[in-house]
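Journal club prep — side note

Before the paper discussion, L.F. wants everyone to see what a predicted structure for a comparable chain looks like in token form. Sequence:
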Amino acid sequence: MDSDRDGRIILLNGASSSGKSSIGLALLPLLADPWFFFPVDGLGAMRSTVHTRVLDDAGIDDMLRRTRAGYHRAVAGLASAGNDVIMDYPLSERWRLDDLLRTLAGYDVTLVEVRCSPAELDRRERARGDRPVGLARSQGLVYAHGDRDIAVDTTTATPAECALTIVNALDGVSSPKAFDRLRDSLPSIT
């Protein structure tokens, strides 16, 4: 079944614990239906962990890379069928951005930068208890590409406030969008 249109994609990019998931969930009731909130952690949670326990570091890295590349293609698949998708995904490795620029070529992608102060990231990591403290600070590459369509800061703003900021800014995002500018600036991607 082919859709009359490709779905739109909102990519929430930020370090671990910056608030991407909370913002993604807060966006759902604000956006016209139907939108899918599809966090990369949701796909990872579907993976069996029985055999993962016996993998060495190289095996784990390979498995995670395949999972992330599959996530990129799953988002493209949803959008190609006309579904609107909110991605919760840190661009913490250069290959992720390069692969997304290729995989999502031709799609309407709005890149949202989700920022938070380092001290607040550390506090959230300690409170969560499921991430090593310092993980977020180690993900400096999430913003290395230097472009975005919309930016929010969760240091003091709530997820609901950030979601409202995003929704209010969506119609004002000019073309070409960040993903198109990034793709055009990197000849190896086109």
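L.F.'s comment for the group: Helices lie at 20-27, 40-44, 57-80, 94-103, 118-128, 135-138, 159-170, 178-185. Keep this in mind when we get to the figures.
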